[in-house]
Design goal:
By secondary structure, the chain is mainly alpha-helical. It has one domain (about 1-255). About 80% of the residues lie in helices and about 0% in strands. The chain has nine helices and no strands. It has helices at about 1-5, 10-35, 45-90, 100-115, 125-150, 155-175, 180-205, 210-230, 245-255. The protein is rod-shaped. The two termini are about 45 Å apart.
């Protein structure tokens, strides 16, 4: 289930939800017409209203969770961009040849960070990227260690900004991997098909189709699910975290 949510586009999964709701609605309508049960004045129709209210709450909470995670990924990207920029500024205060050497590694590190956000990122590619980041961090640490041995008046600032680069990288990776729990998505599927089934059963008993209302309900639920799942896929989709701060930082390094 987790692999499906990561690899399949959000709109395709949303279409699966649509098919499930339509099928449930048709089955409910078929059962009601087959049994010829008068559900229009049955107190049990209140369960339909209750299930729809529960679906609305679940949609709202799930959307809020996905939006919060999206915002956390954006803030993590901004924080990492600022940390790299601070480290680069601190490296600019060093004497040659350490200044040019350290700035070149930081520049390469920032470019790698930006490059990894382009295109779909599988788990294997992510692990490869993490290894590259760790190798570059090791090079930066070694350069800083050599500078500290030789002595520099900005030793504290240099060490703190290097630590900032490492910590923000870990925070951003954690934010990237933070997704909606699979159980929530399964519950969302169940909570959307049950109201559709009860609606079909109710309309089948009343012998009124109400096609516009039924399909409007299914369409709105599908759109909300599509946006929610799109927010839950940081590596692809229509809603992506803007990389403008990192792009602006790299341009400033090239000047």
């Amino acid at each position: 289930m987790g692999i499906l949510l990561e690899r399949v586009d959000a709109w395709l999964i949303a279409l699966g939800f649509t098919a499930a709701m339509l099928t449930a609605w048709l089955v409910g309508r078929w059962i009601a017409r087959r049994n010829l049960t008068d559900l229009e004045h049955d107190p049990g129709v209140k369960f339909t209203d209750a299930s729809m209210a529960l679906l609305g709450l679940l949609l709202g909470f799930t959307f809020s969770m996905a939006l919060t995670r999206h915002e956390q990924r954006r803030l993590a990207m901004v924080s990492e961009s600022n940390a790299i920029g601070d480290f680069y500024t601190c490296a600019s205060l060093l004497k040659e040849p350490h200044r040019t050497k350290l700035r070149a590694v930081i520049h390469e590190y920032a470019e790698q960070k930006l490059e990894v956000t382009r295109g779909v990122l599988s788990e294997a590619k992510l692990e490869t990227a993490i290894q590259r980041f760790q190798a570059l961090q090791t090079r930066m640490t070694q350069i800083v260690a050599d500078i500290l041995v030789e002595g520099t008046p900005i030793a504290v600032s240099l060490t703190n900004t290097l630590n900032g680069v490492s910590s923000t990288s870990a925070s951003r990776l954690a934010a990237y991997r933070d997704r909606l729990p699979k159980s929530i998505v399964l519950l969302l599927l169940l909570s959307s098909t049950i109201p559709a089934f009860l609606m079909g059963q109710q309309k089948g008993a009343s012998k009124k189709l109400h096609v516009a209302g039924t399909f409007s309900f299914i369409l709105l639920v599908t759109l909300v699910i599509d946006v929610t799942l799109d927010l839950n896929q940081p590596g692809k989709g229509a809603i992506m975290v803007s990389q403008e701060p990192m792009e602006r930082l790299i341009r400033s390094m090239s000047n």
